[in-house]
Write a structure and sequence with these properties.
This protein is α/β, with parallel strands linked by helices and 384 residues long. The chain is 38% helix and 17% strand. It contains 16 helices and twelve strands. Helix 7 packs parallel to helix 10 and helix 10 runs parallel beside helix 11. The chain is globular, with a radius of gyration of 22 Å. The structure holds adenosine-5'-triphosphate. The site of adenosine-5'-triphosphate has 13 residues, from strand 2 and helix 3.
Length: 384
Amino acid sequence: MSTDDATDGEQHDEEAGRADEPLLALEDVEVHYDTGTGIERYLSDKRVKAVDGVNLELEENDIVVLVGESGCGKTTLGKSAVGLERPTGGAVKYRGQDIWEAKDHPRGADIEFREIRRAMQIIHQDPANALNASRRVRAILADPLKKYRTELGPQEREETIYRYLEYVDMTPAEDYADRYPHQLSGGEKQRITLGRALLMNPDVILADEAISALDVSLRVEMMDLILDLQETFDTSYVFISHDLANARYLAKRAGGRIAIMYLGNIVEIGGPDEVIQNPSHPYTEVLRWSTPSMDPDVAMERIKEKPPVRRIDVPDPQDPPSGCAFHPRCTKAREACAAEDPELYDAEETEAACFRALDNHEYWSSQELEDAEGSGTAELGVGD
Ligand SMILES: Nc1ncnc2c1ncn2[C@@H]1O[C@H](COP(=O)(O)OP(=O)(O)OP(=O)(O)O)[C@@H](O)[C@H]1O
């Protein structure tokens, strides 16, 4: 990081104050969507519980990778975490400041909403949609500087743009600055969106499937670039990935955590080796089982095996099961699982929302659930 860029970071941290508070805290966050239209909304209490009571903290220079099947609420949770989606319940706090309180009651806020917006950025899956096709890279990158770095004159702005293009390995920077998005490859476009996010000197970046659209051969390169720059800029990341192998790579290199989501909740969280090698939640085992193996012998064995689920189908998010939402699919479910919703408990090496993590729980004395029909080869929607 250049001295200028480093100084900016320090200034923002000082402005934000509150050293004793976590950088980001999600407290019992819920995002429930009303479904139906018109009068139906009032007559029906059906709602999609996209996120349903999530607690999560993010420290400075931290990484959490959210993993789970399609529709489990990863994007909704990620957007809530960076202030792009207003929760219908609970709170999201940036350095102790409730984000939505700062928006609704600016006078009482310790940190302005505008400052919070700057501090939280997003990189989308599809960089082509995120970049204005009719503007050159130079103009695209000048926008955030004009908005948030008003002290910079045209010359300094140009130098800053070149410097950030170099950070994201786009050299010669002058050449790339003159291009339009259609003159860039997919990987180059994603580098521009990363550079643009970093220009805001953010504390947190939400990277929503930011590498999924890239060629497999470019994914590791992009992950490495993001992780190198994470060290340079001390940025925290919430990554969203449907791919457990990528999640492991990201979390392991950065010393971060993997959070496994299922139907609106985090069901297991911990270090990458712990979550993947010694999971305590039966759903994490399912994800691990469904991740394709590079080892042909393991792959052949998997084909012969039955998936470790009792049912293949994911329940309707408008009508989630009682108790533990995973219990109808869980091979270890007992009656206690249908009656009560587990919290995250300290498990062997992770935190897991499963009664089996507790030595003294009525789970152990309750009846096993009868086997459900429908076991077979599951299409679980994770992995490539
Ligand atoms: N604006 C909305 N209105 C109603 N339902 C929504 C809305 N946005 C998301 N949902 C629903 O909320 C649930 C969670 O969606 P979300 O996009 O967060 O999941 P996801 O895990 O990111 O999925 P994917 O991996 O497919 O992107 C899904 O059932 C989805 O259909």
